[in-house]
Design a protein that fits this description.
Blueprint: E1 4-5, H1 16-33, E2 37-43, E3 57-63, H2 66-70, H3 73-78, E4 81-83, E5 92-98, E6 104-112, H4 117-131, H5 133-149, H6 154-176
Parallel strand pairs: 3-6
Antiparallel strand pairs: 1-6, 2-3, 4-5, 5-6
Length: 178
């Protein structure tokens, strides 16, 4: 299953279809955006086969520049991608994709320009978790605990994960950008 009602927090065991869904979505995005796409990655917990995740596929695109993306906004919207300006993600263009009935989010899309440290942070976090199973298990335990505590408050669930994520990202960024 893919998709989760807005505001709800529910974790599921890894589903290999999430990887297929991410690959399909990335191919469609590259097709729509063309040469402005420098790199595309499936990120987030659905890209980590060893842990539970919310059934929402997270994708990161490194793009040549946001101006080229803005020129394709109508194309993105026609394919179901809704731009959501996000105050906490200043160097990021953020989009969501929803189910046809508009009740559930199926995808999060984060776009970064070439020099954005946020790209390194997102991709680095995933790569770290894939290489460090103990950290991945600790992350999963935290997520399970928070999902039980905040089953209908995704904002608090997400905010409560920040310290853990930021700790891993600090390690990653120290290695990537001395």
């Amino acid at each position: 299953m893919i998709g989760l009602k807005i505001g709800v927090v529910s974790l599921e065991d890894h589903d290999p279809r999430w990887i297929e869904e991410a690959e399909e979505a990335m191919a469609q995005l590259v097709n729509m955006l063309g040469e402005t796409v420098i790199d595309a990655r499936h990120i987030g917990s659905t890209a980590m086969p060893s842990i539970k995740a919310k059934p929402i596929v997270d994708i990161a695109l490194k793009v040549g520049d946001f101006k080229a993306v803005r020129a394709k906004m109508e194309t993105l919207a026609a394919s179901g991608w809704t731009h959501r300006p996000h105050s906490e993600l200043a160097n990021t263009m953020y989009f969501i994709k929803m189910t046809d009935d508009g009740e559930s989010v199926t995808h999060h899309l984060f776009m970064f320009e070439p020099d954005a440290w946020e790209w390194d942070a997102h991709v680095g976090f995933l790569e770290h978790m894939l290489k460090h199973p103990r950290d991945a298990m600790a992350y999963e335990a935290l997520k399970v605990s928070l999902a039980e505590k905040y089953p209908f408050d995704r904002e608090r669930y997400t905010a409560s994960k920040k310290a853990f994520i930021n700790g891993i990202v600090a390690k990653v960024m120290k290695r990537h950008r001395p």
